[in-house]
Design a protein that fits this description.
mainly alpha; globular; two-stranded antiparallel sheet; 2 strands; 56% helix
C-alpha cells in the first residue's frame, strides 16, 4: 500500500524542508502565497510551493 501525502504545506514544513528558522520559513511561505494571490484563509499546496521555489516535488514529499 502506498503512503498518502498531504495536499497542503504549512510554515513549519517549510522550516523543515529548507532548514530555516520559524520566522524565515513564515516569510518564504507568505511570499509564495502572495505570488499566487491567495487570501488569508486559503492554503498553499505542496505543488505550488515547489513550483514557486523551483524545487523538485519528489524531494519535498520525501522530507515531509
Amino acid at each position: 500500500m502506498s503512503k498518502k501525502y498531504r495536499l497542503c504545506i504549512n510554515p513549519k514544513d517549510v522550516a523543515l524542508i529548507l532548514d530555516l528558522s520559524p520566522r524565515q520559513a513564515q516569510r518564504k511561505y507568505q511570499q509564495a502565497k502572495d505570488a499566487y494571490g491567495k487570501a488569508k484563509h486559503q492554503q498553499l499546496t505542496i505543488h505550488e510551493f515547489a513550483a514557486y521555489y523551483d524545487l523538485p516535488l519528489a524531494e519535498i514529499i520525501e522530507r515531509l
